[in-house]
Amino acid sequence: MSEILENRATPDAKTQLDIYRRMIRIERNDDATRTQIRRGRITAPYYSARGQECIPSAISVLLNNDDKICTIYRGIHDMVAKDMPLRPLWAEICGRVDGTCKGKGGPMHLTHPETGVMVTTGIVGSSMPIANGFGWAALLDGTKQVTVAYFGDGASNIGAFHEALNLASVWKLPVIFVCQNNGFAEHTRYENGTSVDQISKRAIGYGMPGYTVDGNDPVDVYAHAHAAIARARAGEGPTLLECKTFRFMGHVFGDADGYMTKEEKAEAMAKDPLPIYRQKLIDDGIATAEELDALTAKIEAEVNDAIEFAMACEYPSDDELRRDVFAEEIPA
To answer: Do 90 and 312 meet the contact criterion of CB atoms below 8 Å apart?
Structure first.
């Protein structure tokens, strides 16, 4: 079984409200993205993380701007939780020149170093060795920066996962490996492709702590992330967090998700972490319903502003075709 965390840190009221703000920012942004695709205003592959809002939100409140994240194609929610500004994010999704990669990266390759969003990869599991590189740089530079590598449960079965965890442990790299285990590796059910019932058990083989966390409980995610980040900043090395959750949508937008049963999907959606956490904040006296509604309205305005900003931006010109690709610029 996974390890049991002792001396659990608890987020104060202000932090809990900040976690909720990030969750709503993710949910509103995700909903807007799917809406824009349905309306034909953007054409792009999209991997919704609806249902997984809690995980990066409860982790990001513990990170500074110079702490880094490396994520994957289903990772826009990780960036939004890290407070990446939405205008350049949407401009990049729409392929416009004001995007973070001048419109040449698209949704699969978003980056924003100013907020620590270092890379999005389209290759399963490749976030982990890249995170090790940032961790190694932090050690060489003598900083206390940490790097979070986000990945899915399917990525724990490829070589990069095992190589990255081994090296991070040997070199005591300040990296937190966060598996967002939503139960499906693309179209394959967890039990049909993974040899262990808990991915956190694999940490034992690499000499690092491994925890299985309720990925729909912000307080539980916060407590374990707090311990992992403190361990990394203290120079004690990496931690593996397996955050169990569920994705409400298919693998990619338009997927009929026939590999999910209607019953399990309905059960998961009945446990949607967003309304449950909202009610908890109200019951605990942290915020009123009116205050949370106002927060949602403010975030909706931010998302709408970003969309219209992106739509008004120009596409990159032809002479940008090879710029930023090769060390020596080659004329198009």
So the answer is: no
Chain Cα centroid distance, residue 260 = 22
What integer pLDDT is reported at residue 256 of this predicted model?
Answer: 84
Name residues whose C-beta falls within 8 Å of residue 79's C-beta, 6 or more positions apart in sequence: 69, 71, 89, 110, 112, 115, 117, 120
174 closest CA partner among 105, 102, 229: 229
Q: What is the pLDDT of residue 332?
A: 60
- Cα three-residue angle 36-118-237, rounded to 5 degrees: 130
Closest CA to 51 of 71, 81, 34, 27: 27
The two tokens of residue 246 are: 């569920």
Closest CA to 71 of 24, 5, 10, 26: 26
What pTM did the predictor assign? 0.95
Backbone conformation region of residue 237, classed left if phi is above 0, alpha if psi is from -120 to 50, else beta: left
Report pLDDT for 74: 93
**Residue spans of beta strands (DSSP E) within 88-169:** 117-121, 147-152
Residue ranges of the chain with per-residue pLDDT less than 70 = 1, 329-332
Rounded distance, CA 173 to CA 118, Å? 17
pLDDT at 44: 85
Place of tokens 């949910």: 27
Helix (H, G, I), strand (E, B) or coil at 291: helix
Residue 47 · residue 106 · CB < 8 Å = no
How much is the pLDDT for 160?
96
Greatest C-alpha distance within the chain: 61
User: How far from 314 is each of 43, 93, 96, 101, CA to CA, in Å?
Assistant: 16, 13, 6, 13
Residue 1: predicted pLDDT: 64
What is the model's pLDDT at position 192? 93
CB of 62 closer than 8 Å to CB of 31: no
Q: Which tokens hold the place of 330?
A: 């080659």
**Element holding 212 (H helix, E strand):** strand 210-214
